[in-house]
Amino acid sequence: MTKAEKLRLCSWMLIYATALVLASGIQLEVTDSRNIIWVLIHMIIGSLFFANIVWHLYLHFGWKSWIQKLRKQKSPVTRWLAIFALLTIISTFVTLFHWVGTYTHSPIGGIHGKISFVFLALVIGHTLKRINFFKKKKAYPKRVD
Hints:
The chain is mostly helical and 145 residues long.
């Protein structure tokens, strides 16, 4: 599988993961995270989403110098995306530690939700800007008989 094919697969997986994490996040906001099962489902989906983001960044930048390469990005949206991704990850761990101790929704969980919704809005914008990547058909070589 070529790097472009891996990136296309990763990007499609990110689209599905974005939809799932957004839906589960909205569900948690609506229900004030009262049901432990839904919180656990959100954590699993979020973990898969994060792992997919790491794979996406790896495909673009490799393992070294992510911070320098992200800082050199010309697009301010990509920079904001990186900033809100970092804020989302930090708030995730703070929220997780609180939730594991109390199994209740907390103000920090609400802050995490708001930060994450901004992050997901940026993700959706980032994807829409690159929509042609998803529309391209795979070019098959012509058959020679």
